[in-house]
């Protein structure tokens, strides 16, 4: 995971020097889903140009179950997205939507029980890899030209295990024009 974060940092510093990009940001995301027992986090590099938003993102989702079926499931995604964004007139709010292509790999529980125990069962696992269609829609509040906070709803449609997650996001970079 540290290697992925360092790669994003290196890539973002290189892209920030490019003159043809109007706006850019590095976004950190996270969520804690108590209903589905999942914790998710991610990092994205966003490039804004002529109302078009380009993103590359890495996300990891880990199931946490204290009592119940074991082992925990783990999801990983690497997505390339393109979409549109619209800023409010005062440039304090942004709405965006994106779609793209991504790699999805996971460790999933099978239906076959390995051990039966009192508060849950231990299952065999399988490792899956597939290509998915990531979708994202979200909104941002931009109190400063260099920072925003917001919410994204992210989905990954694939043949193995499609999922949807709301995620909180904090972005840093050249996010909007200075006034």
Describe the fold and architecture.
By secondary structure, the chain is mostly beta strands. The longest helix is centred in the N-terminal third of the chain and has 15 residues, at 2-16. It is elongated, with a radius of gyration of 18 Å. It has an 8-stranded antiparallel beta barrel. The protein has one helix at 2-16, and strands at 23-33, 38-49, 52-63, 74-87, 93-117, 120-144, 147-157, 163-174.
Mean pLDDT: 83
User: SSE order, as H and E?
Assistant: HEEEEEEEE
Number of helices: 1
Query: Biggest sheet: strands side by side, in what order?
Result: 1-2-3-4-5-6-7-8
Strand content: over 45%
Biggest sheet features: 8 strands, antiparallel, barrel
- Give the overall form: elongated
Q: In angstroms, what is the radius of gyration?
A: 18 Å
C-alpha termini separation: 37 Å
Low-confidence stretches: none
Please give the number of β-strands. 8
Please give the structural blueprint.
Blueprint: H1 2-16, E1 23-33, E2 38-49, E3 52-63, E4 74-87, E5 93-117, E6 120-144, E7 147-157, E8 163-174
Antiparallel strand pairs: 1-2, 1-8, 2-3, 3-4, 4-5, 5-6, 6-7, 7-8
Describe this protein with a few key phrases.
single chain; elongated; 179 residues; 68% strand
Could you write a compact summary of the structure shown?
With 179 residues, the chain is mainly β.
């Amino acid at each position: 995971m540290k290697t992925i974060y360092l790669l994003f940092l290196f890539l973002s510093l290189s892209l920030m020097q490019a003159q043809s990009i109007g706006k850019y940001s590095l976004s950190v995301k996270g969520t804690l889903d108590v209903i589905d027992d999942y914790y998710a986090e991610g990092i994205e590099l966003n490039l804004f140009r002529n109302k078009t938003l380009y993103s590359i993102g890495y996300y990891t989702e880990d199931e946490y179950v204290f009592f119940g079926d074991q082992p925990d499931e783990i999801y990983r995604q690497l997505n390339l997205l393109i979409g549109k964004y619209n800023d409010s007139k005062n440039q304090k709010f942004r709405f965006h939507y994106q779609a793209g292509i991504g790699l999805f790999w996971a460790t999933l529980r099978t239906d076959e029980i390995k051990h039966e125990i009192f508060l849950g069962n231990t299952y065999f696992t399988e490792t899956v890899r597939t290509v998915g269609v990531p979708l994202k829609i979200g909104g941002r509040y931009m109190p400063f030209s260099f920072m925003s906070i917001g919410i994204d709803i992210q989905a990954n449609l694939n043949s193995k295990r499609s999922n949807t997650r709301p995620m909180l996001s904090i972005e840093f970079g050249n996010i909007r024009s200075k006034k």
